[in-house]
Design goal:
This protein is α+β, with helices and mostly antiparallel strands. Helix content is 35%, strand content 30%. The protein has 3 helices and 4 strands; from the N terminus they run E-H-E-E-H-H-E. The chain has helices spanning 15-31, 59-66, 70-79; strands at 2-9, 35-42, 49-56, 88-93. The protein has a 4-stranded antiparallel beta sheet with strand order 2-3-1-4. A hairpin with a 6-residue loop joins strand 2 and strand 3 (49-56). Helix 1 (15-31) runs antiparallel to helix 3. The longest helix is centred in the N-terminal third of the chain and has 17 residues, at 15-31.
């Protein structure tokens, strides 16, 4: 299992619109091949910063099956107008689940 972490910084004042858009976009991820979970967290220290935490069965499910697809384009149309800059994305794998 791969965890995608996307850090998104928003334009000032667009937080409510982004949150509405990302809530709708959750259904896109629910239907995406290999997508296991989708969570959004907002920074307390930097309220214009969000992190998307998306679990995929494989890296390819995200990078080949989803990215660039019509579903990805639909998702981006819902949320990208609120981005201050392109998101920073990285993929991680679990090395320890302590408790």
């Amino acid at each position: 299992m791969i965890l995608e972490i996307a850090q998104i910084d928003l334009k000032p004042g667009s937080e409510a619109d982004f949150e509405a858009g990302i809530a709708k976009a959750a259904e896109i991820f629910r239907a995406a091949k290999g997508c296991r979970s989708f969570a959004v967290r907002r920074s307390i220290e930097k309220p214009q910063r969000y992190r998307l935490l998306i679990e995929w069965d494989s890296l390819e499910n995200h990078t080949k099956d989803f990215t660039g697809s019509q579903a990805w384009q639909d998702y981006r149309a819902m949320v990208s107008p609120f981005f201050e800059a392109p998101p920073s994305v990285e993929h991680t794998e679990l090395t320890l689940q302590a408790f």
